[in-house]
Amino acid sequence: MTCSCRRVSLLRIAAFASLLFLAAISRAQVMPQDRILASISDSEVRQLKGNVHPLARAEFDRGRVADSTSLSRITMFFRLSPSQQAALSRLLSEQQDRYSPN
Fold first, then answer.
1. pLDDT of 1 higher than 70
2. Which of the residues 8, 9, 48, 90 has an alpha carbon 20 to 30 A from that of 74?
3. Residue 62 is inside which H or E element, if any?
């Protein structure tokens, strides 16, 4: 077997091993459970206090926009479920452990 044939064989093996590794990692990802289980009605909408842009006042209102309008630079923070908080705490403590795989 020539040197170039060995190199090609090793590259094929490395590529196959990489694909197997990526497939295993993608299957290990856990999707979070839906926490909004029903549709939200207008009676359940709440106004959030604080951190409102100065131009977000009634005098600057231009009316309805299309449903497809993208809103940028908006950040919303939600409370974690108890299982999500426990998983986050566990991850953070594991990241402080040099022998942890995380």
1. no
2. 90
3. none
